[in-house]
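WARN no homologs supplied; continuing
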Amino acid sequence: MRHASRAIACRVAFLLAVVLALPVFAGKTDLPNVKILATGGTIAGVAPSPTDAAYKPSQLSVDVLIGAVPEIQRLANVTGEQIAQIASQDMNDDVWLRLAKRVNELLATRDVDGIVVTHGTDTMEETAYFLHLTVHSAKPVVLTGALRPSTSLGSDGALNLYNAVSVAADPAAAGRGVLILMNDDIHSARDITKTNVVDVQTFTSPDRGLIGESNYGENRFFREPAKKHTSKSGFSVGKLGELPRVDVVYAHAGMSADIIDACVAAGARGIVVAGTGNGNMTKASIEALANAAKKGVVVVRSTRCTSGFVGRNIEIDDDTLGFVAAGDLNPQKARILLKLALTKTRDAGEIQRMFLDY
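OK structure emitted
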């Protein structure tokens, strides 16, 4: 254990030493300016040894992350800012609002050409989609992270950060909405989802495919997002101090209604159902949700399946019950859109139109 502690101390000391050497690359006036906003996660994690699966996330500061990859200063003038230092399972509305407001503030200036957000992978897709709907700029915003902590053998964080900076500095990335760069792949925030616990190829976009690829800073783009986002989004967080509560309920065989009643009693203004198949659930659950809808709680049907489109009025009479069909948004993304929609309206018909548009 003592040897493992020395090994990790040496690695952290090396990262700090690289930070001190950073000025040799800094300050090139002919390069774009990229700001890295750090929130923590595995990319900033530290393990007891290079081959230990257990680790502590969010241990390293943004300056250490930047210093560990000095080559990024050849791509852009890179500076950093620590927004939060948490594991992404602890991501919350307060950090989302703070992050979105800061991104908008930075991109509104001429001093920032693109932004990279370092983030844990557990909720990366949720934060990315929240920014996708609330950032009002065509400038590139790219999230990245790691499946292996910074001190691990074969850590993926350094190359992910390098490629993410290359995308954020790339004029071809502009106007494509918020992107996620992981393991050489560029995904749209709307389409991406995490599919494996620890595999470095955990992220996929199952229905729509990749936006592009990045290979050691060489970027290729294939398409643009199909739905509204960023500069064309109607959502704004500038004056918001909080977001409405929306709960996700996971459907299963024998699902009872009491969990739905508990959400309503706890003050949920919206409920997203991770339904079976085409957004389905038990009869008892449907009745409880119908009662919730009559009380003004907005109900959205999504699916626990990895891919597919939840259609309206297929097996469940959404028109009669007052439900909203999520389309191809998974439950965690549907929750974010519903939270933002509820800042504007509680009308289920209007919210259904938002799910078609976004």
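The first strand starts at residue 33 and ends at 40.
OK
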